[in-house]
Amino acid sequence: MARTGTSRRSRGQAIRDAKLSRSAAIAQLQLTIPGLNFRALVILSTSIVTPLGVHVATFVYTFTSSVDQIRQVDDSPDGDGSPLGHTLESCALVPAMVQQMKRSAPLLDIALVFAAISVQATVKMNDVRRRAILEKLGLILQGGQGVREAFCKARHGAKMAKSLAPLSRAMTGLVMAEPDLSEVEALRTAVPGAPAKANIDTLLQLHLTLASSTLTGLEDKIDEQEVKAYTSRFKVKLIRNEDQIPVIFLGNEKTPSLKILRLVLAVVLRGLFYCDLVVLVRCGFLVLWPLEELILRPFFVWIVHFARRGAYDRISQLRMVFDGAPWSPLKPTLLAHVNHARVFGVWAHPDEGERDELVPLDDKDAFVEEFVNICVQPWVINKMLASDAPAIIVQKVEWARPAVETILRRLKEAKLVDITDEEIGLVDQRPCTLTSDQLAAIRVNGMTALEEAGNYIY
Predict the structure, then answer these.
(1) How does DSSP assign 152-170, residue by residue?
(2) What pLDDT, in 10s, does the model give residues 7-62?
(3) Which phi-psi region, left, alpha or beta, contains residue 217 (left: φ > 0; alpha: ψ -120 to 50)?
């Protein structure tokens, strides 16, 4: 019998492509997904946990077991550092989200990041002690850079230097089994005493794309007077170069304005090419910025982030590394989405339009990042959030709690982190509760206009 009417698939696509009123969207949704009950839900500014029923497919995928290669090279005592490929000895079952977060990097990276998020969420811990633990976790992540680069290069057939084998075994052992404490010394030795210094030249090279040729001649499009006027409103002291342009986390007062502007442009082009094209294809709409705004808005967000948080991530409170080290989980995503389901330049909440004015820092009722859907995050946090709803992100942190408790105890036993059993107990408390600022950072992530129009689906 011939099919009549609009199919569910095409009707759903029509909803995504059309600008419907709330009532019309609900009516269309009821036709698309028959049998579901709809009711209005008042979302307060502090509410972040959306019904998981809206995101069943994403939830199932996120926690589905996936065969993942956790040892990229032969780091055995008799090994030669050759790439291993997928073997029984090199693979383990991990949730798909872990595979997405780490790619070819060591599994220890993910354990340390979730540990940092959980430690930051432990409000009962002494503030000074919490800060010291987080700093150490960040330095351990930096200490594994040599192995991380070797793991990622193994995808292209490169061998790892034999001198890195003990460090590699120590990093894997901390996560997968009781580590050999004699080999942990290799990690302890590799951990730096201080965070890496910023290197704007290397950072710029890291962000250059095929479109980098368009950078030529665009630097003069930025209005330095407008930058000075806006940044003069910040009450926090900002390091500025000789042009009075804030250098924030990009260097020192000798950093040339030209390099800063070229980095802004390179970051924007990379973000539009790698991120927004994906969002545009998925969501079916486009927002075009005037060139001046394209340059100014990200730079202002960098200033806001630095003024509020310095070089630290909002969610994990790990210090980002601005030395341009490739594949580092702490390298900054300098153009990240507040809401990964919407393009840059619009307010991150889909129920509102575009904001024309930048919000001053001292307006505590507003987050400038949300108004332009731009924020600064470490690469690994950007991957952890993906386009997932707040409820799923909270579930990720909750899922990781047993692993966090284990890794913190092993780090304590290996004398890599100064943490007490009582503090580990505080971190491991359930249910998962993030701080208000952590929740504010994720409260609109993954929220689309379609979901907002439906007032959430139960």
Answers:
(1) HHGGGTPPPPGGGHHHHHH
(2) 434 444 444 455 555 555 545 444 433 333 333 323 333 333 444 444 566 767 78
(3) left
If residue 423 lies in a helix (H) or strand (E), which one and from where to where? helix 421-427
SS3 state of residue 217: coil
Helix (H) and strand (E) counts for the chain? Answer: 20, 4
Cβ neighbours around 212 below 10 Å, total: 16
- Among candidates 154, 131, 3, 13, which has minimal Cα distance to 82? 154
- CA 427/CA 408 separation, integer angstroms: 9
Contact 446, 55 (CB under 8 A): yes
* d(C-alpha 338, C-alpha 355), whole Å: 15
Backbone angles phi, psi at 94, to 5 degrees: -135, 160
In the chain, % helix, strand, coil (3-state, to 5) comes to 50, 5, 40
- What residue segments make up the domains of the chain, in order of their start? 63-194+391-435, 200-310+338-373
Tell me the whole-structure pTM to 2 decimals.
Answer: 0.81
Cis amide linkage into residue 431, ω under 30° from 0: yes
Under DSSP, is residue 354 helix (H, G, I), strand (E, B) or coil?
A: coil
